[in-house]
UniProtKB/TrEMBL annotation:
Organism of derivation: Paenibacillus pini JCM 16418
Protein name listed in UniProt: Uncharacterized protein
UniProt-listed InterPro entries: vWFA_dom_sf
Family matches, as SUPFAM superfamilies: vWA-like
Length: 246
């Protein structure tokens, strides 16, 4: 399963709509969750509305949190969307095989067996989480909390039985107001995070939509420039995703 976990205070102001970008991610089989760390007042209200719409379009969930609750919220959202995705797939299979629309329609004995399978799949299904950090100037006071939250998220992913990988991106880049930067490639190694935040420089613009599109490219091609890497090309021939994305 593939997820984008966006951390932002909302109010994107450069480039493509982040709501449309999130919808595109969902079409690619990538769920978009959003943890909103917003300010008070009108700007915070507008940011909160955008955050909710991004998650809705991306098939995920959103939460508005303070910096103290950020770590717990990120873990909750990641796990909850894994469970929801698996339940949706199970319900689809139940309808096709048994003619039931949902798990709740099964007799208690059968329901118990299916719930056990869902729980097992939640812990064992391979998971990739692309963490996308809003590094606009307004997020600067919140960066320390984001750093702690990422470490806690990595620990929770390591506790799963299945393969869990984390990649970290921030936006905008130093050279372009609409580019995302890959800070950490797919890893399950917690030590890789030690020097991560020393490389992030905060800037003024908030190009959330273009950044989401860049991360979609990374899921698809293994790069941020929209072109397939030579390794994937050699392995998959036609350059399409070879695995099934839940």
């Amino acid at each position: 399963m593939k997820q984008i976990l966006l951390i932002t205070d909302g109010c994107s102001n450069v480039g493509a709509s982040p709501i449309l970008a999130a919808a595109h991610a969902l079409q690619e089989g990538i769920t978009v969750n959003v943890a909103g760390v917003v300010d008070y007042g009108t700007i915070g209200e507008l940011g909160g509305l955008e955050i909710a719409e991004i998650a809705k379009a991306g098939g995920g969930i959103s939460r508005i949190v303070g910096t103290r609750q950020l770590a717990q919220t990120m873990q909750m959202m990641t796990r909850k969307t894994v469970v929801q995705t698996i339940q949706q797939a199970v319900n689809k299979e139940l309808k096709e095989i048994l003619g039931h629309d949902s798990l709740e329609e099964l007799p208690p004995s059968q329901r118990s067996k299916v719930v056990t399978v869902v729980d097992e799949l939640t812990e064992t299904t391979p998971l990739q989480v692309a963490l996308l950090i809003d590094a606009s100037a307004s997020m600067k006071p919140k960066l320390a909390a984001v750093e702690d939250a990422i470490r806690d998220l990595m620990l929770s992913l390591q506790a799963r039985m299945g393969t869990s990988e984390l990649a970290v991106f921030h936006y905008p880049s130093r050279g372009s107001s609409e580019d995302a930067v890959l800070d950490l490639n797919w890893t399950s190694d917690l030590s890789s995070l030690r020097s991560l935040f020393q490389r992030i420089q905060m800037k003024g613009a908030t190009p959330t939509g273009p950044a989401i599109l860049k991360v979609i490219d990374f899921f698809r091609y293994g790069t941020l420039d929209g072109h397939q890497s030579w390794r994937q090309n050699a392995e998959e021939g036609e350059g399409m995703l070879g695995d099934y994305v839940v």
